Every structure is written in C-alpha cells, then in structure tokens.
Design the sequence.
C-alpha cells in the first residue's frame, strides 16, 4: 500500500518549464545563438541550478556572455511571472484534494533551489499540501541520478514499496526508476520514450490520470 506520493514540481505541478524555455530561447536569439527545445530537455530539464548555469555558459561560448544570458533570462522570466503568474498543470487541485482526502502524505522533490520551490508553491497557494520538500540545493547529483528521491524516501520514513513518484520528464522518471520506486509520467515538454512506456508504472495525459493507480486502500 502506498503511504507517500512524491511529486516533481516544474512541469509536473506548475507550468514553469515552458515559460523559462521561451525566455532563454529569446535571450539566446538576441545574441545570435540558436537554441532548441531538444537542447533544453537534454541540458536543463531536471538539472540542478548549478548544472543549468554551466550548460548556458557552455552554449554561450564564453563565461562573460554566459553570465549575461543567465542574468537576462532570469530577469525576463521573473518579469513575466510577476505580470502573468505561473499556471498550475491541468487537474492539479483536484488531484491534490483527492490524495489528501485519503489521508496520504505528499512531498515535493525538485531540482530547483529551496527558495524557488517555496516561492512557486506559495504563488499557487499549494504549499500546505506537502509535508516535506527536498530541493536541488540539498543534493549533489541531478536526475537521472536517484539521490533526490532516495533522500525524499528517507525523510518520509516509508519504504520504496510504499512510495509513488510523479514526474514529467524522462530524466525524472529514470531517477525514480533508479531509486526502485514506482513512477508515473505526466509528460510536459517531451513525450515518453519507448523505454519509459515499458518501465514506468503508467504514462498519463494529466495529473488526474494518476488517481486510478492509487487504489482505495492507499494509506490504510
């Protein structure tokens, strides 16, 4: 029986990946550098803050320009957040309420910094649903390394068999599977690979799709 549901944040709970990709692409274009969605998924999605910065510097070709791209992207992303806010992913509140009603604990395990996780969860008013947060600045390795999920599992006090992970990216799903925890994918920027289709517990179109996999007995 499952006792803890561990959610990724960006792209899973909150539609923040696409706005950041758009901001980064726009800034790169300003400096004559092409940047694709595929590059973002490979180099940025699911990575720690430091790894994302290093990736931008490599793509920029030199440290000075890389730091400028990072600065301008952050400012543009923040400006749009302040003007428009972030949208929740489809079915978010319905899903969180359904899990809460069953008395099951929920956690967030995100590669973003703790400060950013807190800010984004509060912006949607959903921080109260989660008993614990594990962030990218609390671990040494990024997804698909399982460290962040193993730390979340340790803090939950549950076994791997009692846990379920919900992720949006292939690297996140791989991290969950590498931690030997059942993982469901809710795709965001990229669809599930054939391997993930085979190895994940399920691939569903939105968050409400995870509910049939919880079972009536969950948390009992």
Sequence:
């Amino acid at each position: 029986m499952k006792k803890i549901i561990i959610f990724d944040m960006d792209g899973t709970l909150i539609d923040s990946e696409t706005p950041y990709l758009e901001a980064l692409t726009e800034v790169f274009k300003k400096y004559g550098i092409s940047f694709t969605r595929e590059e973002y998924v490979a180099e940025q999605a699911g990575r720690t803050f430091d790894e994302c910065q290093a990736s931008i510097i490599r793509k920029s070709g030199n440290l000075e320009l890389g730091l400028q791209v990072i600065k301008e992207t952050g400012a543009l992303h923040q400006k749009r957040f302040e003007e428009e806010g972030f949208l929740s992913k489809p079915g978010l509140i319905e899903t969180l309420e359904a899990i809460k009603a069953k008395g099951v604990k929920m956690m967030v395990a995100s590669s973003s910094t703790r400060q950013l996780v807190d800010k984004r969860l509060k912006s949607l008013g959903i921080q109260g649903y989660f008993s614990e947060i594990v962030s990218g600045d609390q671990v040494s390795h990024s997804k698909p390394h399982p460290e962040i999920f193993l730390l979340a599992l340790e803090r939950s006090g549950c076994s791997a068999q009692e846990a379920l992970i919900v992720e949006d990216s292939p690297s996140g799903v791989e991290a969950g599977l590498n931690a030997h925890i059942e993982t469901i994918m809710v795709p965001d920027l990229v669809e599930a690979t054939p391997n993930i289709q085979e190895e994940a517990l399920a691939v569903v179109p939105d968050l409400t799709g995870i509910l049939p996999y919880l079972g009536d007995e969950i948390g009992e």
Q: What stands out?
A: The chain has two domains: 4-15+87-213, 16-84. Strands lie at 4-7, 14-15, 87-88, 105-110, 132-135, 163-167, 182-185, 202-203. The first helix runs from residue 17 to 30.
